[in-house]
């Protein structure tokens, strides 16, 4: 009897590489040494390392540790010291402590937890692992190192089948070139694709991106952003329904309802498509573009088929191409193209057509309306004072033609090769016309009665204005012509050659910038889907059906779907060689 008792004790205490195996659902193990301590661990076997670590296997998972407490009947163990867990060839985990329930296939690890996948490494202080769902979960802070970036968050969840991380709360993605802060970020480690949800910023030395829903390729450094999206450069802000961003090319594009704000030059450009090249300091805007620049407490609006803005902030240049329209409260105009130098205050209205003007043809020259006056010519220059932002002068080159409606009938007309107009407080007060000048104007007395029609030719003319109306006219160098009674002046000669009154085109309001133009059909934005509604990580279970075990370090309330787990005191197990020495008889009684 004593012999069999001795054999039993010997087999339990000193047998090496003991293996326990039942059906396929039971946890298998090998251990150099094993004892029981019913007082401290009732119903459990204490396993420990002598030369080889304790080794557990269960349905494709392997666990190594220095010490373990194994509850055979519950199919549950707690592992201590240099814990390593391996699932197949793709998931490995190391920690100081771990628990595993073979029935529910649910694991918990704590203490310097490191989970490695082919593309990523996750570190945290505690991690839950559901093998049935193939999901890992932390809620007390974690860090994931990717090939290109480092991601941190308070809460994180890993979906192994999708190779996807879902980060929540205080999410930060750090890359050598930029930092992403987000409310929620879904990250696919095989591609490096990140989906951004909630208020999100991407900050770098040269730009800051904001969005409330977006996509970013962390390895290709390109992004696509929707919902309240904007890109802030140091002196320019880009907004739109949809933004595309390419960090490699320093390029961005915006689609639908775009707004580009120049914070230094106090100008805003709107449209429905734009391309921004940061290194070249250039912006191209199409689809109903309009630029608004503040000038002397009044805004100047410019619209054309295409607008281009180039140059560093101190030397911005605005160019408009095709069907240019300008509006200011006291002035408006049209031209084929426009050039605005914000540094010098020079604006050029340019005509891209050429050819002689005859009595039959009417060239669509650049035109400016100021009050009841209309000025046209092949090219028109407007000069503003960059400091005061007030209009300084106006120059018309080649085929200058000034028309002003008479107070009652007809048109007062002045033409020549060149025209120079001077402004005072944004009102024109003097016009000089040179080379082959010709005038036709209706002369009236103080009672506005018609005295006659004056037609005169001279080498140059000076016109003085009062409250935007012609007040006086001076002729220089042997003028020819005179004043004719109305009845003696033929009707068919009351319009000078090249006359082209375009008053019906005059812009009276800001809305006239788009008069006669169809509203562009906006591109349908390809949205970014909302994040998938996640099922709760911890399944609701009966009181007697625990995810881990009643002997777990965790309590049932720790396995509820709350964000912050209760703090528990750390449990430590004494190594076998530190257990109190007992006789064979005592050990037999413990077993």
Automatic annotation (TrEMBL):
Residues making up the signal peptide according to the UniProt record: 1-21
Keywords for this protein: Cell outer membrane, Membrane, Signal
Keyword Transcription regulation belongs to the record: no
Protein name: OstA-like protein
Keyword Acetylation attributed: no
Organic solvent tolerance-like N-terminal domain mapped to chain residues: 49-183
Disordered: annotated segments: 536-591
Taxonomic lineage of the native organism: Bacteria, Pseudomonadati, Bacteroidota, Flavobacteriia, Flavobacteriales
Biased amino acid composition, Basic and acidic residues: 555-571
Ranges of compositional bias, category Acidic residues: 536-547
Origin species: Autumnicola psychrophila
